Amino acid sequence: TSDYTIDLHQGPITGSSRVIGLAGTIAPITEGVDGFAVNPASVAMRVPWSRSWVDGELDFGVTRPSSITRSDFDNNGDDGFANNAAAFMNAGAGIQLGAWGVGLRVDMGQYRVQARDPATSVTTSELSVSLMRSNVVAGYSFGHGELVLGFGIAISSVELDLSAGNASEPELEAGVEGFAMQLGAVWAPHHLP
Known about the structure:
Blueprint: H1 17-21, E1 54-63, E2 87-97, E3 100-116, E4 123-142, E5 147-164, E6 171-187
């Protein structure tokens, strides 16, 4: 039947304090690993204090349910986020060699959606949702950073596993995988702020 609703979402912004502080609007600053997902040119964009020919950056973050208690994390009007199967992780690395930059970023998330029998309020099955997105990027900086161009490949996948009743092994219900090419640019004239 069609008597069901599945609500899948990436959830709130997870990432560095800089990305969260800007509410996800990182595209204009495009520096470092945080920018790989929105603009592949960020891999070759040097920060102002970068003075050497070789520069690099590592990034890693984990969010578990214990760190988001008493907040309406999933924006459903309830501050009791009790999904102890949820986990969100992001990691990335980038290296700059002169005007070139290459990098990799991976974002993963996992959570469960429970189905309940409306008559008894007993959990009848659980849907496990796994999300993964990775970005492989490369870029080149022209004119000492005034113009930066980048290219990337984004790979995404979503898997839905259903465990019904007493089943010991969850069964893969659906999965979607795909990739996309990315192009990006940053124009940052030195004489402008």
